[in-house]
Amino acid sequence: MSTTLAEYYSTNYTKCYEKLQEFSFLSSPNFLKTSAIVEFIVIIPINLFGFYCIFVHSPKYMKEFKWHLFHLQFWFLLLTIFYSILTTPVHFFPAQVRCSNGFLRQFGVPPEYQVYIVHFVFSGIVSSVILLFENRHRHLAPTTDFTYKIHKSPRILLGILNFSVGITNTIPVMLQDDSQEYLKLKNLEVVPCPMELYFDSCSFASSKKITGWSILAYSTNIIVTIEIAFFIIHSFLCLRKSQVVDTFSVRTKQLQIAFFRAAIAQVAAPLLVLFVPFIMLGYILVTSANLQGLINVCILFIPANSAFSTISLLIYNKSYRVFIIGTLLKILPKVEISTTRVAMASIN
């Protein structure tokens, strides 16, 4: 058994020649990097248009709600930026090893710090999702409900605590005792013939060892899940009750339903997008197949989250939807007229 990565590379890895020949263009780091850059170019305008609609075309009754929409979109945008061009991680799933092959590598940022940054962004997404549904819950819950008292300072504290909860996932990675040499060798038992990039300095391995910090991370993930589920379920129950209360106007009831649907859609759309990659990765995990190309395709779904979140935001919020439809109706006649003129000119 090899005791160092260099020894494994010079002995065992030379026997992987046939398997390495099976890797297609989809498996190459160049495919992932090029696709991620193209994806970034396509997605960024969609996100910027979403921000434009939030700030310019949000009606007065969305004065508070729009900041929660912006908050979530901001973190999704950061996820796209970091995953597509800044870190561009090549994952060697099911091994707990990834190589950060983006622009941050060219600037000399160590791979472990790139992992910390991505965890930081995920923490922001978790915090913004909870605050989004907490906002909806506060407007739907009756004044007699104990959660109705969560205002101003307590709400800010709730956001900070939830962000801190998300950060706990970074602690086990930061404080892992085992060396990178040992962890990478251990993961070679799972993926004995990875791409050559696995042995590069850009790769970083995470430990699977159960420690007090990892238990804390798992526990906080459960707490966050329960918290989100509570706000969604209780908000839905309060929404149903409010629909039969005579003290609310028909307009208010319609807005309550619209806001709740918009919040659900903005969060659910990215999760539904990740359903396909989860199925693919599950297949790799069960079969132990070394399908690096399939893993690369799955990675490209992650930056796409912000685009799908923005699209759902624009569809399920009436004010944005009306603006888009109105703009299209103004543009299409002009396009038809100019096309007709070109056709007539060519005939003449």
From TrEMBL:
TM ranges are 36-57, 69-93, 113-133, 154-175, 215-237, 258-285, 291-316
Domain of life according to the entry? Eukaryota
InterPro entries, per this entry?
7TM_GPCR_serpentine_rcpt_Srh (IPR019422), Nematode_rcpt-like_serp_H (IPR053220)
Q: Which UniProt keywords apply?
A: Membrane, Receptor, Transmembrane, Transmembrane helix
The record ties this protein, via Pfam families, to:
7TM_GPCR_Srh
Q: Does the keyword Transmembrane apply?
A: yes
The protein's name in its UniProt record: Serpentine Receptor, class H
